[in-house]
Amino acid sequence: MNIVVCVKAVPDPKEAGNIRIDPQTKTLRRANVPMVLNPLDKNALEAALQIKAAHITVLSMGPPAAGSIVKECLALGADKGVLLSDAAFGGADAFVTAHTLAMGVRKNGDADVVLCGMASSDGATEWVGPEMATILDMPVATMVREIISHDDTAWEVKAALENGYRRMKVRLPAVLTVTRDLNTPRTLSFSGIIKARKKKITQWGLDDIGVSAEMVGLKGSPTIVTEMRAIEKTRTVTFMEGTREEKAEQLVQKLVEVGVL
Ligand SMILES: Cc1cc2nc3c(=O)[nH]c(=O)nc-3n(C[C@H](O)[C@H](O)[C@H](O)COP(=O)(O)OP(=O)(O)OC[C@H]3O[C@@H](n4cnc5c(N)ncnc54)[C@H](O)[C@@H]3O)c2cc1C
Predict the structure, then answer these.
(1) CA 247, 251, 253 angle in degrees (round to 5)?
(2) CATH number of the domain bearing residue 116
């Protein structure tokens, strides 16, 4: 069973204050912000690690610094680490990210299952998994919260819905995006870190994945972000006086005034 897990390097939320927006390209400046492994991708990797006898490749598209999260996944137990890194890949929107990753999956060989987090903690479009499935012409199950059964031909899963779940049987090869309810990711072990030292990261650029420069990065992105600005949150506090009933009455009036009710 060949499993490919897509893992994204995202800005460390603890350093959110240092994230800047490039005034020209309207994309995030990631250079001075430490990168961490996207939280939901830890659940995707854990799901793969729990499948016995699976050969696990982690695949990431990002700047050279994203190599650190690929190394972390190798230390957690992945067998192979691939970093898609090229200046031409910078500024990619969700569609082009999905396309570049899909070409990475193809170059890596036949994948039986492609696992992604349901969303990244920065862009959070939730589009990359389903778009990869379309490009790879594979079925997709999104928001998987339980793997009921799995074999070499199909996986049976429970996928989240707003008020419940869908039970699905997905024929392989397929793409699955996962939620945090699926499992509790393991943490790094000393022995895992030592073992990972010997594992080399395979790095592929534009020429390696056989895609034209028009199809990658900001240049190939159909989505143009025309404006990105931080929302100033202004809050005013109003204290209500009187009995409980009077306060409730005042609250209802306030909510009517501001159009909530
Ligand atoms: C604030 C903000 C708003 C944005 N709005 C848009 C928008 O409206 N439209 C648009 O097209 N793009 C948008 N982008 C750009 C988009 O976030 C990036 O293209 C991003 O690389 C892919 O989308 P995502 O992070 O939203 O992916 P999601 O679909 O949220 O990510 C789901 C999963 O896909 C995999 N994945 C995603 N990116 C990578 C990667 N680089 N390497 C490996 N695996 C990956 C991971 O498994 C991840 O868990 C926005 C970015 C930001 C920061």
Answers:
(1) 120
(2) 3.40.50.620
Structure tokens at 165: 């779940």
Please write the tens of the pLDDT for every residue from 98-139. 999 999 999 999 999 999 999 999 889 999 999 999 999 999
Number of domains present in the structure of the chain: 1
Encode pLDDT of 165-198 as tens digits.
Answer: 999 999 999 999 999 999 999 999 999 999 899 8
Q: Is the CB of 184 under 6 A from ligand 1?
A: no
Residue 42 in any domain: the answer is yes
* Alpha helix segments (H runs only) across 118-183: 128-136
- Which strands sit side by side in the sheet containing 113-117, from one edge to the other? 164-171, 154-161, 140-150, 174-178, 113-117, 2-6, 55-61, 80-84, 201-204
Residue nearest to atom 1 of ligand 1 (CA): 123
The verdict on the CB of residue 150 being under 6 Å from ligand 1 is no
Q: Whose CA is nearest to atom 36 of ligand 1?
A: 8
Let me know: does 136 contact 175? Beta carbons within 8 Å: yes
Residue 98 within a domain = yes
Tokens for 194? 């030592």
